[in-house]
Design brief:
The chain has about 450 residues and is of the alpha/beta class. The chain is built from 14 helices and 17 strands. The protein has one domain: Metallo-dependent phosphatases (Purple Acid Phosphatase, chain A, domain 2, 4-Layer Sandwich). The strands form 3 sheets. It has an 8-stranded mixed sheet, with helices on one face. Strands 2, 3, 4, 14, 15, 16 and 17 form a 7-stranded mixed sheet that branches. The radius of gyration is 21 Å and the shape is globular.
């Protein structure tokens, strides 16, 4: 069982909230006595691994430096920060990554799982993609740090959960070998055919985004961490509310979920957002048993997305929003927790979009013969409006490369639909990118916005 390394608390704030609750001020939540609210934006950063990938740079023979797309994206976020002091403030108040910040591992297998008796076996489907490289430490991780340094220098609070690519090792585990006897045309996306990938070690991640890193060590908004920052918590204020954000490691185990429940208990009444890497599929379902199901190897330290819902998301009434990536495409799911309150879940992962590479002359070479995946500068903007009752979120998809929203791009559906949501109509594909979420019970749960 892993142990919590540290937790920094807002003692005075907790005392005030506790006193209010003791006086019977139920229903005030984090909002207090009521104000006019505000409009603000959370920037959701989908998987950036293909931008930082060292093989997607000119020095490796690629048509462009994909890292420039990433840095351009983060610079745009910084330029639109409400906290910026070197120019007119924007609307962005928080940045939520959903993991897979870089691409390659640095180890063949982590020491912890090797000591448990597991080993790595060859896998022709994945080995070329998951071969460790010293260039991760020289190129990929420094690029990720440089991008988030732009955000940090703008004064924006942010959270980064690790995805499977952010672990030190990702490998086909010996207990579930791939089926190498099947003809390629008959291979299915199953453990039986592809084998089972597992991960381990977060030394590189902690070096970049650990609790003691320059990003977080002295920031009052970074309020808690688990095992040095493999999962973390942040607070921010906007729209007349104080929000809690939890960045949880992929397929988080019971110890992580217990830690998360403790953090929520230390911040009573705060609207809570959870960001984690693997949680929802493009079909708006939670998938278990895939070739990246960590519970099939190490159930003691991991939970499936469904188990995470049952053990944390559904039982903590402060959680109203979950953000995730991992699966290529987009989806939205509205469901109720055990208290009957809404939980809104948003998937966005644009890593396989490679039109920018095609425009620069990069030959196709991605999945299913398509363009090499990059991301094309697309991110998700969650535009909150707490001036209305009920509050709402306008979900918008924006490319910092093209400088346009999805609805402003005539070729948007033609470029991306068939790879991400084949068979979906043009109208439905666009509707999945830009829509409104009405937070029908938000004021009932958290009160009116503070003055």
């Amino acid at each position: 069982m892993r142990r919590m390394r540290r937790m920094r608390r807002y003692g005075a704030w907790i005392a005030v909230v506790g006193a209010l609750i003791a006086l019977g001020c139920a229903g005030l939540g984090a909002g207090g006595l009521g104000g006019e609210g505000d409009r603000f934006t959370i920037a959701m950063i989908p998987d950036t691994q293909n931008y930082t990938d060292y093989t997607h740079q000119k020095a490796h023979g690629f048509a462009i430096d994909a890292s420039e797309l990433f840095l351009e994206q983060m610079a745009w976020v910084a330029d639109n920060a409400r906290t910026r002091t070197d120019g007119p403030p924007g609307d962005i108040v928080f940045v939520a990554s959903v993991g897979d910040t870089w691409q390659h591992p640095t180890e063949w297998i982590d020491e912890e799982h090797a000591a448990m008796g597991y080993s790595r076996i060859p896998n022709p489907f994945f080995d070329a993609h998951f071969t460790p490289s010293e260039k991760v430490a020289k190129i990929e991780i420094p690029t990720a740090i440089a991008g988030y340094r732009l955000v940090a220098d703008a004064g924006l609070p942010f959270g980064v959960p690790p995805g499977n690519h952010d672990y030190d090792a990702m490998y086909n585990v010996n207990t579930h070998p791939p089926n190498t006897s099947k003809p390629p045309a008959e291979i299915t996306m199953t453990v039986e055919d592809l084998g089972l990938l597992h991960v381990g070690g977060l030394g590189g991640f902690l070096g970049a985004f650990g609790a003691d890193s320059p990003f977080f060590a002295d920031e009052p908004w970074y309020v808690a961490s688990f095992e040095g920052g493999t999962s973390s918590a942040q607070v921010f204020e906007a729209g007349g509310y104080r929000f809690l954000h939890l960045a949880l490691e992929m397929q988080a185990g019971d110890d992580v979920l217990a830690w998360a429940r403790g953090v929520i208990a230390e911040h009573p009444g705060l609207p809570t957002i959870v960001s984690t890497h693997d949680y929802l599929s493009p079909k708006a379902t939670r998938i278990s048993g895939g070739f990246l199901d960590f519970t099939l190897v190490d159930a003691e330290n991991h939970n499936t997305p469904q188990q995470m819902f049952e053990k944390l998301i559904a039982v903590e009434p402060q959680i109203f929003l979950v953000l995730c990536g991992h699966y290529h495409g987009q989806a939205y799911l509205r469901e109720q927790n055990v208290a009957g309150f809404d939980v809104h879940t948003v998937l966005a992962d644009y890593q396989d979009r490679g039109q920018v590479g095609l425009d620069a002359g990069q030959p196709p070479g991605g999945l299913m013969g398509g363009p090499v995946g990059l991301g094309d500068g697309w991110l998700r903007l969650l535009e909150f409006d707490t001036t209305v009752d009920p509050p709402r979120i306008a979900m918008r998809t924006y490319s910092t490369h093209y400088g346009k929203h999805a609805s402003e791009m005539p070729d948007y559906v033609a470029w991306y639909r068939d790879h991400e949501q084949k068979g979906m109509s043009d109208e439905a594909f666009m509707a999945a990118e830009e829509y409104d979420i009405v937070l029908t019970d938000f004021r009932e749960r958290f009160g009116a916005p503070a003055p």
